[in-house]
Specification:
Chains A, B: This is Glycoside hydrolase family 127 protein. Two copies of one chain form a homodimer. The first copy, chain A, has 19 helices and 24 strands. By secondary structure, chain A is α+β, with helices and mostly antiparallel strands. The first copy, chain A, has three domains: 424 residues, Alpha/alpha barrel (Glycosyltransferase), CATH 1.50.10; 102 residues, Maltose phosphorylase, domain 3 (Sandwich), CATH 2.60.420; 115 residues, no CATH class. In chain A, strands 2-6-7-8-14-10-11 form a seven-stranded antiparallel sheet. The longest helix of chain A is centred in the N-terminal third of the chain and has 22 residues. The radius of gyration of chain A is 25 Å and the shape is globular. The N and C termini of chain A lie far apart (57 Å). At the A-B interface, helix 14, helix 17, strand 15 and strand 21 of A face helix 14, helix 17, strand 15 and strand 21 of B. Strand 15 of chain A pairs antiparallel with strand 21 of chain B, so a sheet runs across the interface.
Chain lengths: 648, 648
C-alpha cells in the first residue's frame, strides 16, 4: 500500500449514515420528495413552460425505439446519468421500490442504447455516427462516459444491481481500447474532465486495474506536447487556438500547473481526479500539484460564498484577487466541484482548512443554486444584483435574479440533486481507530472501529445554533479517538464529555480536537461553537471589496435583500461599531436565523433632476437593516441583493 | 422662414476663427502636424506594426487601377472621408498647398471610383456588386455616403473646389432616386445614421431642396411599421430579430422616442440630424423629441466625463443611472456625437446647459480618446481601470489601458481628427446683433454684426486658469450684445468692462451674461471664473458611484493614476475635509494643472496569506495623493486609473 493511501482517511459509506433531523434533513427530504421527481418529469419533457430536455427521448431514439432527431446539448446524456446518480444516493438512504423501478427502466433503456462494441453516446449514435472520437475537445463523449460510470457505481452500491455497472464497464473497456499510450491508440483526453475521477470509482468498485491505469493516463497525458487537441483539430481540418489552452487545463502538464485556470468546473473535476489517482498510485507529485492549486484557489480565487470562476467568458477563473461581485460567474457546478476537491484533499490531509472550504461552499454557493422549493435553480451565483442591470446591461445578462425552472444547458440542477442526496458521505471519515467528524449535521453513523461496531449520534440545530451533542454508542467499551473539527471561523469552542469540560488546547491537530479515551456506551459530548456575528474583510488585493464588509455567522454568509431593506442597497453603510441581533424566524424562508442591526443610510434630501452635483451635503440617517442567509436570497419578490456592504 | 430657424443662432464659420494660443492651439497644431500626416500613412498601409487599413487601396481597386480584393470593415471608406474632412478643416485654418495637393489626389481617386450612375462604395463595387442596397441594416452604404457628403461640403468650404462636392451630389442624387416615399422607391433608411445630418449640410451649401427632403424622409420613416429592416431581411431570405430594434433606434418612430437607446454613436448622429431637419423645416415635434432625448442622456445616462454608452454589448446605452465605471464603453465617437448634438441644441436654444455638456465632453471623454502625441487612440474610455482585469477577465476585454496605434474598426481616430480640426466652429455663435461666446479658447473671431465688421479676441490660459480677457474690436462704435457663458460648474464669476466690474446678476439669460452696450474699438472685458477644486457627487441612483466622489476643476475631470499613487487605488479614501493644492506642472503631460491633497490609505498591517479575515483592524495612514486631468491618463507607464474615489 502506498504512503498516501496509508495515511488516507476513509469516508464512511452513505448507507451507514442517517441524516435524521435539522437543517440538512430538510434538504434530503426535498431532494427525495420534490427535486428527483420534478427532474424526472423535466427529463421526460412533461413540465409545461420549461425548456425541453429531450434527454430521455434521445436514449429512446438511440435505442431504435422511437423516430426522431437528437436534441439538446451534445452532453445531454449526462443529465440523465447525474439524475440516476442522485436517485442511487437517495435509494441508499431511503429505499423506495417505486423509484427504483423507474431507475431500473431507465437503466434498461440505457443498456438498449449501448452499441455492441460498448460505445454509448446518444448524440453520436443518432447524429454523427461517423464522427465518434474525432473531437474530444468539444464533444463531451468522455465527460458523459464519466457521468455514466459515476451513476453506475452509485446504483450498484445502493442496490447491488450490476446492470448499469456492466454497461459502464463495457463502455470503459471500449474507451480503454481506443485511448492510451500504447501504439495504435489515440493519445487523447477529455475536453471536459470528469472521467478521471469516475474511472477511479470504477476501479475501486470492480478492482480492475485497467480503469485506474486509464484514468492515470488521461491525467498524465493532459497538457503534454504535442497537444492532442491540436493534432485532432488538424485531422478534422480545423484549427487549434492556443489561447484556449488554459480553458481546457492543457496549458501545461498537470503536475506543472500552479494556478487554477480556465473553466472552473472542468478544473475542479480534474483536480479531484488528480487526488484520486494520486491516492491509488502513491504519486506524491500529483498531490503537490493539487496542494498548490488548492492554495491558489482558496487564498486568491474564491468568493466568500465558496463560489469559483469569476468570469462569464469561459465560465472561468481569471486571475488572483479578481472577484467582481456583479459580473461574477460562480457557477453552481463549480462550487459543487470545489466540494469534491475539498473532500478529497481532506481525506489525504485531515486539516480543517479543507473542511472549512467544503462547508463554506455547501452552506453558501452550493445551496444558493436551488430554490427553497427544490424546483428552481441558479446557474450563476452573484454576490451583488441590480435586477434592471441584469435585464438591460448585457455585460450582466448571464446573471439572473430569479432562479430558473430549467436550462438549455442543464448541468447544475441534477448536479445539485446528486450532491445533496449524498451529503451523508461528507460528514464523517475513519482511519484506524480515529473517527473524524467534519460537518455538524444532525445524524447518526454506524461504523466499525478495530472490528467493533460503533454508533455515533449527533444532535444539533447547526448552523443556526452552535451546540452539538454527540452520543457515543460503541457495542462495548472501546478505546478510540474522536476528532472533532473546530471550524476556522470559530473563535471560541468548548467541549465537555459527560458534563465535564475538557481543555482542547492541548489536543488540537490541524484544527481537529482529538479526544482519545476509552469510550463507554452512552458517553455524551457537548460541543459549543460560539456563533457570534462576524464582520469579514476580504484581502485588500480584492479591489472590489475594499471598504466593504461581509456578515457571517457560523458557516453562513449573509446578504441584504431589497425586500427587507428597500432599493439601492449600496447607499447603506454599516458603522464600525454596531450591535447585531440574531433572531430565528421559523416562518421565514423555511426557518432561518436573520441578523438585524442599526445601520445608516445616505440621505441627500431632495436631490432633484441633476446627474452630478457639487459640494453635496450627505447626511446619514439611521436605518434598521436585516440580513438573511445568502443561500436563501431570491426566494421572495425579485429585487436587489448585496453581500459586501459598505463600511463606515 | 420658420420659427425655429428665426431664433436659431448661427455658428461662425471656421475660416473666421483663429485659435491662436493656449490649450486648444496645441491640439490644432498636433492635428495638423502629426495626426493628419500619421493617419494618411496609416490609410496607405505604410505604418509598420499597425493593423492594415487598406482604405486607399480599396478605392484604387474600385477605380480599376489596381488588382486585389476589398479588405477592412464594410465601412472602411468612411475612414478616408473623415480624414478628408479633417484635412478640409485644417486647410480652412492653415492653408497648406502640399496637403491640399494630396487631398486633391485622393479626391480624384474617389471620383474615379464612382460609378456612372453615381453609386460609390468600394465594398459593394469590388465585392458584392449585385448586393447593393439589399442590406441597409448592416451594410453602412448610407453611412459612408453621409461621410462622403460631409467631407465634400467641408472641402468645398475650405478650398472652394467643387470636384468632391459634385461626386457627393451625384451620389446623393442616385440615393434620392432609390429611396423615398414615392411609389417605386425603397422605403429604406440607414442602419447607421449619419447621412441625415450630412444631407442637411449638402442642402445648405447647394440650396437643393431635394437633399433636405431626403434627409427628412429618412428621419420620418425611421421606426415606422412595417419596419423596413424586416422587409429587407425577408427579401434576403433572412430574419429580423425585433430585439435589435432599439440598437438601430427603430423601436419607435423617432418623434415617439423619449429615452436614448441602442448604439450610442448612431443615436447621437440621429438626434443631430433630427435637430438639423427640424431647423430647416420648422418641425417643432422633432425639437420636442430631441429635448426629451437630450434630457434623458444628460440627466440619466451620461458619465461625468461626457462619455455615453454604458455597455460593450452593442456599444450601447443601457438604462437610467446604469453607469458602471469598469465595464463601461463610452466610445470616443459617442462623445464626439454628443458634442455634435449639444452644439446643435445650443443653436436652437442658447442655454448654457447645452454648452456645459459640450464642454464636458470636449475636455474629458473626447480628448481622452487620443494620446498626447496624437498617434494613439482609445476606442473605449473607462473611468476605472485595473490593467490585469482588462487582460485576464474577458468581461473587460474591450477596455484597453494603453491607447492603440489603430483599430481594425478605426472609426474613432479620424473622427477625433475632424472634430479637433474644426474646434473653431464651436466657440462662437451669432444671432442678429448678439455675439455668443460658448467656449473660452484663446482665439480671435472676425464677423459681421449689423453689417459692421467686428473682431473679438479672447486671451486665456483656460482651462488651467479662469481668467479670460476679451478684446472687442469693431470697425467703429457699435451697439450689440456680447453673451458670455457662465459655466454651470462656476460658483463665482466676475465680469469687468474696461476695468470696471459689472453686476451680471441682472443680465443673466439661460446661463449667459448678456452685456449690451455701445462697444468701442479697444474695449476690454475681463471675465474671472473661479476655479476652485470641486468634489462632485453622482445622483444617488447611480449605484456604482455611491460613497464616492469625483474631482473637477473648471471643466476638467480629474483621476488618480497608479504612476503617482501606487497600486490599488480603491484603498485610498478622501476625507470629507481636505485641502486641495493646485499646481501647474509645465513639464508634465504637455503642461497640466495637477491637484494634490492629503488623503488616507487603508492599512491592514501585514495581512498575510488569507483571503478572508474576521474582525480586521483597519487603520488609516495619511498619504499624499495626486490627481491628474482625466483626459491625460495613460500617457505614461501603464497602470491603474480611477475617477470616482472613495470618500471617508
Amino acid at each position: 500500500m502506498n504512503n498516501i493511501k496509508r495515511v488516507q482517511l476513509q469516508p464512511i459509506p452513505l448507507k451507514q449514515v442517517k441524516i435524521s433531523g435539522g437543517f440538512w434533513s430538510k434538504y434530503a427530504k426535498l431532494i427525495k420528495e420534490v427535486t428527483i421527481p420534478y427532474q424526472w418529469e423535466v427529463l421526460n419533457d412533461r413540465v409545461p413552460g420549461v425548456p425541453l430536455s429531450h434527454a430521455i427521448k434521445n436514449f429512446r431514439i438511440a435505442a431504435g425505439e422511437m423516430e426522431g432527431e437528437f436534441a439538446g446539448m451534445v452532453f445531454q446524456d449526462s443529465d440523465v446519468y447525474k439524475w440516476l446518480e442522485a436517485v442511487s444516493y437517495s435509494l441508499a438512504v431511503y429505499p423506495d421500490p417505486e423509484l427504483e423501478k423507474i431507475a431500473d427502466e431507465v437503466i434498461d433503456l440505457i443498456a438498449r442504447a449501448q452499441q455492441s462494441d460498448g460505445y454509448l453516446n446518444t448524440y453520436f449514435i443518432i447524429k454523427e455516427p461517423d464522427k465518434k472520437w474525432t473531437n474530444l475537445r468539444d464533444s463531451h463523449e468522455l465527460y458523459c462516459a464519466g457521468h455514466l460510470i459515476e451513476a453506475a457505481v452509485a446504483y450498484y452500491e445502493a442496490t447491488g444491481k450490476k446492470k448499469l455497472l456492466d454497461v459502464a464497464c463495457r463502455f470503459a473497456d471500449h474507451i480503454d481500447s481506443i485511448f492510451g499510450p500504447e501504439p495504435g491508440k489515440k493519445r487523447g483526453y477529455p475536453g471536459h474532465e470528469e472521467i478521471e475521477l469516475a474511472l477511479v470509482k470504477l476501479y475501486r468498485v470492480t478492482g480492475e486495474e485497467k480503469y485506474l491505469r486509464l484514468s492515470k493516463y488521461f491525467i498524465d497525458e493532459r497538457g503534454e506536447k504535442p497537444l492532442y487537441f491540436e493534432i485532432e483539430a488538424k485531422a478534422r481540418g480545423d484549427e487549434w487556438d492556443e489561447q484556449w489552452a488554459s480553458y481546457f487545463q492543457v496549458h501545461l502538464p498537470v503536475r506543472e500547473q500552479t494556478s487554477a485556470e480556465g473553466h472552473a468546473v472542468r478544473a475542479a473535476y480534474l483536480y479531484s481526479g488528480m487526488v484520486d489517482v494520486a491516492v491509488e498510485t502513491g504519486d506524491e507529485s500529483l498531490i503537490q500539484a493539487c496542494k498548490k492549486l488548492w492554495d491558489n484557489i482558496t487564498t486568491k480565487r474564491m468568493y466568500i460564498t465558496g463560489g469559483i470562476g469569476s468570469s462569464s467568458f469561459g465560465e472561468a477563473f481569471t486571475f488572483d484577487f479578481d472577484l467582481p461581485n456583479d459580473t461574477v460567474y460562480a457557477e453552481t457546478c463549480a462550487a459543487i466541484g470545489l466540494v469534491f476537491f475539498a473532500h478529497r484533499m481532506l481525506q489525504i490531509d485531515p486539516d480543517r482548512r479543507y473542511a472549512d472550504v467544503m462547508e463554506r461552499a455547501l452552506y453558501n454557493s452550493v445551496i444558493s443554486g436551488m430554490s427553497l422549493d427544490g424546483k428552481k435553480y441558479f446557474y450563476v451565483n452573484p454576490l451583488e444584483v441590480w435586477p434592471e442591470a441584469c435585464e438591460k446591461n448585457k455585460v450582466k445578462a448571464h446573471v439572473k435574479y430569479t432562479r430558473q425552472p430549467w436550462f438549455k444547458c442543464a448541468c447544475c440542477p441534477p448536479n445539485l440533486a446528486r450532491l445533496l442526496a449524498s451529503l451523508g458521505k461528507y460528514i464523517y471519515s475513519i482511519r484506524d481507530n480515529e473517527l473524524y467528524v467534519h460537518l455538524y449535521v444532525d445524524s447518526e453513523v454506524q461504523t466499525k472501529i478495530s472490528e467493533n461496531e460503533v454508533k455515533v449520534r449527533q444532535e444539533t440545530e447547526y448552523p443556526w445554533d452552535g451546540r452539538i451533542v454527540i452520543n457515543i454508542l460503541p457495542e462495548r467499551e472501546l478505546d478510540f479517538t474522536l476528532a472533532l473539527r473546530i471550524p476556522g471561523w470559530c473563535k471560541d469552542a468548548k467541549v465537555s464529555v459527560n458534563g465535564e469540560e475538557i481543555d482542547i488546547s492541548g489536543i488540537m491537530d490541524k484544527g481537529y480536537a482529538k479526544i482519545k479515551r476509552l469510550w463507554k456506551p452512552g458517553d455524551r459530548i457537548e460541543l459549543l461553537l460560539s456563533m457570534t456575528v462576524m464582520r469579514v474583510k476580504a484581502n485588500p488585493n480584492v479591489r472590489e471589496d475594499e471598504g466593504r464588509v461581509a456578515i457571517q455567522r457560523g458557516p453562513v454568509i449573509y446578504c441584504l435583500e431589497e425586500m427587507d431593506n428597500g432599493p439601492n442597497l449600496n447607499n447603506i453603510v454599516l458603522p464600525k461599531e454596531c450591535k447585531f441581533e440574531v433572531k430565528y424566524e421559523k416562518d421565514l424562508l423555511n426557518g432561518v436565523c436573520v441578523i438585524e442591526t442599526e445601520a445608516e443610510r445616505e440621505d441627500y434630501g431632495s436631490w432633484g433632476e441633476e446627474l452630478y452635483k457639487v459640494d453635496v451635503n450627505v447626511s446619514y440617517k439611521p436605518v434598521r437593516i436585516k440580513f438573511i442567509p445568502y443561500f436563501a436570497w431570491a426566494n421572495r419578490a425579485p429585487g436587489e441583493m448585496m453581500v459586501w456592504v459598505r463600511e463606515k
